[in-house]
Amino acid sequence: MYSKKKKQARVKEKESASGNNFVRGRFKDDISGITADFTSSLDIDKRLADFDIAGSIAHLYALRKAGVVSEKEKKEIEKSLLKIKEDIKTGAFKFDKRYEDIHMNIEKKLTMLAPVSGAKLHTARSRNDQVSIDFRLYVKNEIKKVAGALIALRFELIDIAKNHIDAIFPGYTHLQHAQPVSLAHHISAYYEMFTRDFERLINCYAAADVLTLGSGALAGVDFEIDRQLEAKMLGFAKISRNSMDGVSDRDFALEFNFALSMIMMHLSRFCEELIIWNSEEFGFIELKDEFTTGSSIMPQKKNPDVLELIRGKTGGVISNLLSLFIMMKALPLTYNRDMQEDKKPVMESTDTVYNSILIFTEIIKTVKFNAKNMRSKLDDDFIYATDIATYLVKKGIPFRKSHEIVGRIVNYAKENKKTLSKLKVEEYKKICGGIENDIFEVLNPLASVGLKKSYGGTALNRVKSIINDYEEEIERNKKSLERLER
Fold this sequence. Notes:
Elements: H1 2-18, H2 33-39, H3 42-45, H4 49-65, H5 71-90, H6 102-113, H7 115-118, H8 127-163, E1 168-173, E2 176-182, H9 183-208, E3 210-211, H10 227-234, E4 238-239, H11 243-248, H12 251-277, E5 285-286, H13 305-328, H14 343-364, E6 368-369, H15 371-376, H16 385-394, H17 399-415, H18 425-431, H19 445-451, H20 460-485
Parallel strand pairs: 3-4
Antiparallel strand pairs: 1-2, 5-6
Helix pairs in contact: 4-5, 4-8, 4-10, 5-6, 8-9, 8-14, 8-20, 9-12, 9-20, 12-13, 12-14, 13-14, 16-17
């Protein structure tokens, strides 16, 4: 009987040592299975494995410098960590949900490979600053990926703009014909949006580029850890100045998700325009078959489904930003378990945005623009009404008065079922005596866009000049990204 109980005790002890909660001491009982399942984040944060190992190796070197581990122990731990990294890469590593996250899975495996020295690695480190540094390394890496994808997209937009400077079509406000513009000018508007997105990402990188390792649980650590050494090894530009803020700060994640939401919103707007332009009513573009689908019942259909999906996925990305805000809005200092939920919305949004940029870039560089059909829409010469107002201003009539006169001209033409170009000069003169035969020179696309010669306007020489600026700008952006890669 005694031996049976002793055996059972040994089994229980063994299970406790390798079970749900291998950080023991305070607790007499293991957490329940349902608690283990509920609190586990392994399915999400195992993507942080490489970053966790990189952070651990940097911390290991700091421990060696502080005299916490010997040179022999340092080599044994580093070798074991690199073995774990390789096993994860090849799929040989067995993740165990009993250890709730990637950090505990790696640490448990480390203590199996190096039982004595491995147990020293967590000295002068909390899971709070460990999680923070892993997440920051992940965000920095993803920012570089998304920024690189944006450069590729912007490069394609420049190419499209260069090839369509002379293509003139209606610009819209309220989806109504407004004024003629160069197609290159229209495409350049999206280049500007994605450029701001790129700049936001670079700013996000700076926000994430702060070493928080060494903050401990919240108060700092009890050893002379060389944080400069850790920062240099991990490629961080700055070191956090307040340990409490270090472990609880998620501003960098919020800023990154905001930048991702803006990118997705801009993609969605562009997709919406392409969807409209692809319709029978507009016929401005043609999409390649590989980016469209058919109908289950209507054989003639060619649906812009990929563009619609990008537009549809935008809501999820914006929702992820909101979920982060809501999670953080009422958290007291410092770390709270709520913050375990910070990674999923960032990772989901990053994947969605990155993949959306990639496929949208492929779509946009294969779009066929029907410049002839676009220009035909300018036959509705009421679109030149503002140009007539400018014509009258140049005749010495104040703009507000000119605006009123042109409104009367438009009403007259519509009541008489004529276009502006079909009115006779005598009809014009009945409304405004200062109008001469040269009024008809205004009613054409080239004259209209040529008048918009302010910096940033659609005059063709301005558009060409700005595109040249874009080409220089994107080269500077490439160099900025290369500096982050170093």
